Amino acid sequence: MKWIMSFIVAMLLLFPGNGADARPKQEAVHQMMNALLRHKYDLAQSYLANGVKMPEIREDSPIIQVEGLPARKKDHRILIGYFRDEAFKSKRIAFIWELTIKQDRIIRLDALYDGANPLVNENKAVREYRNQFDRHVMVPGQFPFEVHKVQGEIIGRRIALQYEDDANDRFLLIQAEPVRPGMPILNWPKPMKAKGSYESRLQKDGMQYMVTLGHRRWLSHVKPEDLGDVISSMK
């Protein structure tokens, strides 16, 4: 984090604002910034030239501020976005992008820093479930891959948390719900082979869990012992 703040200070000191006349027209940049602040990411993408893709914002926390800073070249622009950090009641850096502008079109976007923490999405879903049902949901303390994205969903009294490894098409899915009267006891912590995945089922503290580790195409790309390690780390 220290180098990030040093980078921002350097941008402000070395390249102070020179007025609109010193730079080419950058209406597309301003429109993109406004779209990001309104959380309209598809609209923000539309201000990029064909073939230029906006990096995925991998965290659901709202973006509350976007700063535009001059860069080393007059046809470049630095964008710094900030998340609202609900845990600390403050803001933190979401991303630092360098844009290249030509004839009021953004023809290139280089991601200099990605500050998203996908596990924030996990925490938000688990906290919401606890507030609704006064139930603790166990989550992994370790993963068999680098987590690029987390999706959390509550349907009825069931919570689903999906952790994704976009680079290698692997995923981990945890589904949990309270044990109901008459519900069969399903407690098979040892991983079992399922269609394209390995699954385990367990009960703890009045909650029924189904934990699935899989690959989008090839089961051979995941190992049952990895699922066992995940379950052992859950608390």
From TrEMBL:
Query: Which keywords belong to this entry?
Result: Signal
Domain of life according to the entry: Bacteria
Stretch forming the signal peptide: 1-22
Protein name stated in the entry: Outer membrane lipoprotein-sorting protein
